[in-house]
Design goal:
This protein is of the alpha/beta class. The protein is 45% helix and 14% strand.
Length: 489
């Protein structure tokens, strides 16, 4: 296997050969979700991108510690650090404890990731579980002269930091431009500069989520948690930090500044960022209100959807584009992904139908080389998929007799498909979406017939339909409007 893996490092803005700090160990930290709402399609892209990176590093023989955090405190309504914590706001609206909100949406996120066949991280820390460590980091930053306290809140002093270090090295922001292009906003007068950011915020009387500190009763700034949790579990310096491009500024820029201000060292050696999923050319996200939740995608229950799409169709849709390119949502693109995935799985199953010949007209080893070369070139999954489809043509040709596979080539082809389709790209075989639709329609037909039987007071027929469906693994709930059903987990 070619061992030189090149990845695009955001901080240097070029592809670099990836060299682990402590081979074969590789440490990866990825910014996970803020759990105040249902996971949407935008959440799927970083999860799947870094899942493939994890899988490929393991395929190459590395031992990987993959840390993905859960943001459950300190993520305010906007980047000016005003308004309520988003989780606390949700808790107020729904009259729940904040941690009830956190648990509900964390469970929902995990369920969606399981459907997408995203590996669970090695460690999944929560911001609220690391308040002590965050306070300790603030102390270091403050003692080193890069923070100041005002009225119980502590802010990072970007100007003081910039006299010694380069603030803006990741995003390309220039401090002079920040001076020229930022303005004082209401409620920010306590900062020295509007671009300074909160390390600790004093809680207002109505604020629910609060912890004691030497500064005040309050809560940590959003950026602080990742600096703390990444280094706690991966060391003061580690290999890879990942996330979406929308996090480059201010989140990741602030992370870099915090870590250097505290230790004098660069914590991260390679910064990797996936691009956005767009809809009608706009970034898809909660703040814009144009998002589609993953459950809506899987069920088809959204106004812009023409049908339901399976989790593997969504995964294929994401991986057929390079992770650094934008990916625009459309029903047409998802339909094409659905057909492409079904064709790939069909070809994999057809390998077993090939009758071996004495000789082979195909050098199947070229397929493995192409796939490895593509992944080594900055995780180029579209080229891997294109290479596999070239082999699909060979498999179909072998079935009609125009190409020949000897026994060794059939075995090798099966292994290569298995390695790259399932182990690296992370697909799993699933029932055809057409079959899923047919089964769904049949269940709906039987349940409607059951309702009619109940109206006729034919309870024997009604109970018979229900018991048969339950025995087949279908959960049924009668409602005032009719019924709801789902497959048992």
């Amino acid at each position: 296997m070619e061992q030189k893996l090149f990845i695009y490092n955001t901080i240097t803005r070029k592809k670099e050969e990836f060299t682990p700090l402590n081979p074969p160990f590789v440490g990866i930290y990825v910014c996970g979700p803020t759990v105040y709402g249902e996971p949407h399609l935008g959440h799927a892209r970083p999860a799947i991108t870094f899942d493939v990176l994890y899988r490929y590093l393991v395929y190459r023989g590395n031992k990987v510690r993959y840390v993905r955090n859960i943001t459950d405190v300190g993520h305010l309504e906007d980047d000016t650090e005003q308004g309520e914590d988003k989780i606390e706001k949700k808790a107020r609206l729904e009259q729940l404890e904040p941690m009830e909100v956190v648990q509900f949406y964390t469970d929902s996120y995990h369920a969606s990731m399981d459907k997408l066949n995203v590996h669970k991280p090695s460690i999944e820390p929560r911001a609220s579980g690391h308040i002590i460590e965050q306070l300790q980091l603030i102390d270091k930053i403050y003692e080193n002269g890069f923070a100041y306290e005002v009225n119980g809140s502590v802010y990072f002093d970007v100007e003081a930091y910039s006299k010694k270090y380069h603030y803006g090295k990741l995003s390309g922001r220039v401090l002079d431009d920040l001076y020229a292009n930022t303005r004082e906003l209401d409620g920010q007068s306590e900062k020295k500069n509007s671009f300074d950011f909160a390390l600790w915020k004093k809680a207002m009387p109505e604020h629910i989520m609060r912890w004691p500190s030497r500064w005040s009763e309050g809560f940590p700034g959003w950026h602080l948690e990742c600096s703390v949790m990444s280094t706690k579990y991966l060391g003061e310096e580690f290999d890879i930090h990942g996330g979406g491009m929308d996090l480059i500024f201010p989140h990741h820029e602030c992370e870099i500044a915090q870590s250097i201000a505290a230790s004098g060292k660069e914590a991260v050696h390679y910064w990797i960022h996936n691009n956005m999923i767009t809809i009608n050319g706009q970034k898809m996200g909660k703040s814009l209100g144009n998002f589609i939740t993953l459950n809506e995608l899987f069920s088809g229950k959204h106004a812009v959807l023409t049908k339901a799409y399976s989790p593997m169709t969504v995964r294929f849709f994401i991986l057929q584009a390079h992770y650094r390119s934008t990916l625009d949502f459309s029903n047409e693109a998802l339909n094409a992904a659905e057909k492409g995935f079904e064709r790939l799985i069909e070809a994999y199953n057809n390998i077993d139908k090939i009758k071996p010949s004495e000789t082979s007209t195909i050098n199947i080893n070229n397929l493995q080389t192409k796939c490895i070369d593509a992944l080594n070139d900055d995780l180029n999954t579209p080229v891997v998929i294109a290479s596999l489809f070239e082999a699909v043509k060979n498999i179909n040709a072998a079935l009609n007799g125009s190409e020949k596979f000897d026994k060794e080539s059939i075995i090798a082809c099966k292994k290569i498909f298995n390695d790259f389709i399932f182990n690296v790209l992370g697909f799993i075989p699933e029932t055809s979406s057409h079959v899923n639709k047919l089964l769904s329609d049949l269940v709906e037909l039987l349940l409607n017939e059951r309702m009619q039987a109940k109206k006729r007071k034919d309870f024997e027929a009604s109970d018979h339909i229900r018991s048969k469906l339950v025995s087949l693994g279908i959960e049924i709930k009668d409602t005032k409007d009719g019924f709801e059903w789902k497959l048992k987990n």
